[in-house]
Amino acid sequence: MKRILKLIIIWLITVIILLVSGCGNKSKKVENTDLENTDLENTDLENTDLEYPDLEYSNLYLGEVNKDVYVNKMFQLKLNGKAHDMYVISREELGDMKEYSDTDSIQTGKDKKNYVNDMEAFDKSGAHRYVSIKIYREIEEKGMEKYIETELQKQKKEYEGEYDNAEVKLSTQTLTDKEVQSIDIRLNGEKIEYAESILYMKVDDYFIEIKVEGKDSKDIQEVLSMFVKPDYEEHVEPKYIFDVDANVKLSVGEVENGIYTNKMLNLKVDGKANDLRFRNDEEIKDKFGYNDSNRADIESVKEVLNKGDYFVDMHATTPDNKLAIAIFVYKSEYDLNTFLEKELNKLKKEFNASKKTIELFGEEIPGIEFTKVYYDGTATVDLAFIKRGKYITIISSGGEYLLAPKDGFKLFEVLDNQVEIDSDETTDSSESINEGEEVDNNFEFSIGEINNGIYTNKMFGIRFDEKTLGMKIKSREEANIKYDNTGEKKWDINEVSEILDNGDKFVDMYADIENKSILSVSIKKEDTLKDLDSYINRQMAGLKDIYNMKGEYVEIKKDKDEFLGETRTYISLHANIYGQDLYERAIYLKVGNYFAEISAFAGDELSAKQMIDTISKIEE
């Protein structure tokens, strides 16, 4: 239907304008070649060449748009697009658009009007409800009444002549507690349902035309109820504080009667009202990685955070799992922007993440967006960041459809807007991340060497002879083709340092047996997560997620075994891919903030263990 098509066109053009101009371009005076209507710009209205050259429009009768809020003081109207989740397009921005006209109703010279296109608005979620406001000046006695009668006959001819189920009538509507004249149009067919009301109101020798379109009469009434007087105090959520430098008492969230609250973050999510299922702590750890935190013991949570690990405070999904939200709490010595940049750098490698401005509690804040590609679809995820002293929280919102992140953020409410500053926490402020961990700084960073089929890495004190089990060590170029497919890298220590500083892994050694069983040593640098056991837990969660995204079931466990003369933790993984068993065994070493992952891939668990055991200590 042409009206719906018009809304879609408006939405598409507006998106283009927002992207190109950043919603901030000044209007340009453009020539309007519309045959039916002549649209007056706000600029140079007195001198514009129109059918009525002496017609002047006073700015007193025109509205203004500021941050999606339209106000017209003379007509006593206000529409808060922010509060009602609508895009509001200003007169200046509309200067970059042509007037939208039904192509089958254009007749040269007929119904030629002089008006100011003052504002247009429509739903952010899609082109369902639409509002436009035009300001006219009467050029003859009873100009508004004559115009309404002409418009009524025009609409009758257009609709009643084309649709059997159309009703077009002159009526009244309530607008900001006033009864005003209205032309009401309704289509109530089996396949087409459409509603439109055109309201008119006069002040002095000016009159305003408010056109509201929607699916049905309910849409019309909802939009009309959004209009209030400019001095009306609308309910506004208290301004949320995203970044607090002072010491804040650490607290964890709780779920009672289907409602999640966290006093430290001043957040609330009503799971009952929004049909959400909150996951328990065991389910959370199974999905995001195990650690020694216990929600009932705040000291255990602090210990986990001091190691550089995160605490998942909440995870909830809709019954169909199409939308999910989560809260991750970190302890960090970085400011909010630096922390965000480091997270962005990590996610860029895996998911091509990018920065995004996120709207939360009516504020625009910097965030991150990325897409995870699964075997059966995709998930769009947005991350918002909140700082409370030395604690940084990431709110994750995403799901299977494009608007899922936005819908997820709408579920969060401000609890009481009070930031609890606690002097007891001051004594904890001297604690730095990884306090109590033995950090070995007495080392010199180095990469491994390969000579005559023997690999050694002095920094980690390990050695491997390719003759063991008949394996063959590949060149550095072959092992790291992921990071350089040009063959131009020398793979010296400077180039490797740059790769590690960018958050990538470096394959220090790669050996295989006729491209079947594989043994490798990879090096990773970690700026925040420096506890070995926490690092291993994070690797387990990451491996599980990778296989799940591919739709492959995987068994993964953590255990201990003897390695290099000590009892160490290792990961064992088993997957069956296209009927073929795959076993992986990985063990980890740590020097300073560098981690070595020694991994073996084989067709059975014993072979994977045997390959790991071929790694020995460098003889002193």
Separation of the first and last Cα atoms: 83 Å
Tell me the radius of gyration.
32 Å
Query: What is the average per-residue confidence, as pLDDT, rounded to a whole number?
Result: 82
The total domain count is 3
What are the segments in which pLDDT stays under 50 over at least 5 consecutive residues?
15-54, 96-112, 423-438
Enumerate how many helices there are, as a single number.
12
Query: What percentage of the residues does DSSP assign to strands (E)?
Result: 35-45%
Describe the SSE topology.
Layout: H1 2-21, E1 37-40, E2 64-66, E3 69-72, E4 77-80, E5 86-90, H2 91-94, E6 113-123, E7 130-137, H3 143-160, E8 166-175, E9 178-188, E10 193-203, E11 206-214, H4 217-226, E12 243-244, E13 254-256, E14 259-262, E15 267-270, E16 277-278, H5 281-288, H6 298-306, E17 311-317, E18 323-331, H7 336-351, E19 354-360, E20 363-374, E21 377-388, E22 391-399, H8 404-409, E23 412-414, E24 449-451, E25 454-457, E26 462-465, E27 472-473, H9 476-479, H10 493-501, E28 506-513, E29 517-525, H11 532-549, E30 554-563, E31 566-577, E32 580-591, E33 594-602, H12 605-612, E34 616-617
Parallel strand pairs: 1-6, 12-21
Antiparallel strand pairs: 2-3, 3-4, 5-6, 6-7, 7-11, 8-9, 9-10, 10-11, 13-14, 14-15, 15-23, 16-17, 17-18, 18-22, 19-20, 20-21, 21-22, 24-25, 25-26, 26-34, 27-28, 28-29, 29-33, 30-31, 31-32, 32-33
What does this structure look like?
The protein has 620 residues and is an alpha+beta fold. The chain folds into 3 domains: 2-226, no CATH class; 243-428, Protein Transport Mog1p, Chain A (3-Layer(aba) Sandwich); 449-617, Protein Transport Mog1p, Chain A (3-Layer(aba) Sandwich), CATH 3.40.1000.10. It has 12 helices and 34 strands. The strands form 6 sheets. Strands 1, 5, 6, 7, 8, 9, 10 and 11 form an 8-stranded mixed β-sheet that branches. Strands 12, 16, 17, 18, 19, 20, 21 and 22 form an 8-stranded mixed β-sheet that branches. Strands 27-28-29-33-32-31-30 form a 7-stranded antiparallel β-sheet. A hairpin with a 2-residue loop joins strand 30 (554-563) and strand 31. The longest helix has 20 residues, at 2-21. It starts with a helix and ends with a strand. Residues 15-54, 96-112 and 423-438 have low confidence and may be disordered.
